């Protein structure tokens, strides 16, 4: 139990500058969260972020943050390929951890971190907490109630497009606005599945439960991208289609593609014998759920982030509200002993789907999943 959770921010890249640091520096969090430290390997970036957002200490080396940053917990906002090693070091140093998606690249890595946290009585919250959204809970209830008859199949997914190249933190003249997006297109940890489809996989498994097996096709469709006037070679798969078996002949098609998002997006579209749930719509009409405010919500827009429990007041005006929510899930767990539903076990199951999908694409063989949550 702690009065104020001293938070270290690992990485001062896009997600931190646009979301984590602006949220955690707000006055309404005084007494609950203190921005104790930030680190980033780019010279001057951590110092600039600390100055802008009132962070206590700035470091270039992550190990220095753990040793001298005076933190109780860290939020890991570095490239995905670094998450496992950085999470392991944090847990070994006695720190609670929030992982921005995706927690690790493999099931074995996730299991090691889960066991390490348990052995040291530490907490892990692993984004994205899609089932914190009340409309997803209501979707699960509607399906169980038979509102769309017998569920037949689900579509979901995401596409890179040029989203990362065009973010507001690219192409500027200082260390907080000229952040290089190249890692999104490179191994390990790059590609739209780890970065974007992971949201849809958390949602669909949260609504339908654990999956049984997967198969997939995957590869690189756009071999060279341009960012900041320089060519970036793509070596992480950017065009992936996954077929997921939930048992009893219930299937989901999930995509992580170079362009052209699948119907359903992050929330999924659920096709039944008596109707369809598509985002916030049941058979084309908005369905009701707790705290729904039609003035704030568009049928398929991001306005539903305003329904997340900690996203109130000024936090509704800052980007990446869902990331802030997940960080606060960890804060509440540490301060109040209140467990979060945004668990490492759920994240591990999604990692199992992703890892198995890539293996299926390589081998041409359907893969049985080995995890649950």
UniProtKB/TrEMBL annotation:
<protein>
    <submittedName>
        <fullName>Gfo/Idh/MocA family oxidoreductase</fullName>
    </submittedName>
</protein>
<dbReference type="InterPro" id="IPR000683">
    <property type="entry name" value="Gfo/Idh/MocA-like_OxRdtase_N"/>
</dbReference>
<dbReference type="GO" id="GO:0016491">
    <property type="term" value="F:oxidoreductase activity"/>
</dbReference>
<dbReference type="Pfam" id="PF22725">
    <property type="entry name" value="GFO_IDH_MocA_C3"/>
</dbReference>
<keyword id="KW-0560">Oxidoreductase</keyword>
<dbReference type="InterPro" id="IPR055170">
    <property type="entry name" value="GFO_IDH_MocA-like_dom"/>
</dbReference>
<dbReference type="Pfam" id="PF01408">
    <property type="entry name" value="GFO_IDH_MocA"/>
</dbReference>
<dbReference type="InterPro" id="IPR050463">
    <property type="entry name" value="Gfo/Idh/MocA_oxidrdct_glycsds"/>
</dbReference>
<feature type="domain" description="GFO/IDH/MocA-like oxidoreductase">
    <location>
        <begin position="138"/>
        <end position="277"/>
    </location>
</feature>
<dbReference type="GO" id="GO:0000166">
    <property type="term" value="F:nucleotide binding"/>
</dbReference>
<dbReference type="InterPro" id="IPR036291">
    <property type="entry name" value="NAD(P)-bd_dom_sf"/>
</dbReference>
<feature type="domain" description="Gfo/Idh/MocA-like oxidoreductase N-terminal">
    <location>
        <begin position="5"/>
        <end position="124"/>
    </location>
</feature>
